[in-house]
Design goal:
CATH topology of the largest domain: Arc Repressor Mutant, subunit A
CATH architecture of the largest domain: Orthogonal Bundle
CATH superfamily of the largest domain: Winged helix-like DNA-binding domain superfamily/Winged helix DNA-binding domain
Low-confidence stretches: 1-11
Strand content: 5-15%
Number of strands: 5
Number of domains: 2
Helix content: 55-70%
Shape: elongated
Strand order of the largest sheet: 1-3-2
Amino acid sequence: MVKLKKIRQLNPTLWRTCRVLAGETRLKLIRQLHQSKGAGVTDLAKAVGIGGSDASQELRRIQSRGLLRVERKRSFVFYRFGADPQVPSAAPLVKALLEVLGSSSEKQDAEIIRIAWGLAHPRRGALVQALLMAPKTLAQLGRDTGIPRNSVSRHIGIMEEAGWVAKQGQWLVGTVQPHPIARTLAQLLQE
């Protein structure tokens, strides 16, 4: 049995950050913050077409991943897109997001959602990490990661759609797309 390097537990965890990035509304909020150079909850809610309470919850989710800077003045909260210096994994992700935020929003957002969803579960991160080290069969992958075979199969399908895994005969191969978000996530997985 090959002993795998334990998946690095990022603070916040990488799979939770991917889950945040896989949300269409959250990406709209990030895009709006990037375009406006910052705003309050009410303005952001109007700009993306959601209620103030929903906007507030989504912004807290994004902030918890270290992707927003927050200024509080009395009862007013002002959000800016930017890396929280207390979350080391946030800076490379913010840099990658900045590379793509200037592009066509719907197409880029769909691509970011697809890529992020591929790693939006802790088992998927472990599976991709193992496959980036070396190609494996389905049985080897399950054995090496300790993940039950039926779970491996289910996750492989999701990761294949997201571009993280390619099948070559009986072999599964980890892949990294040239997209800035994919490259950054792969780098964070391998650190």
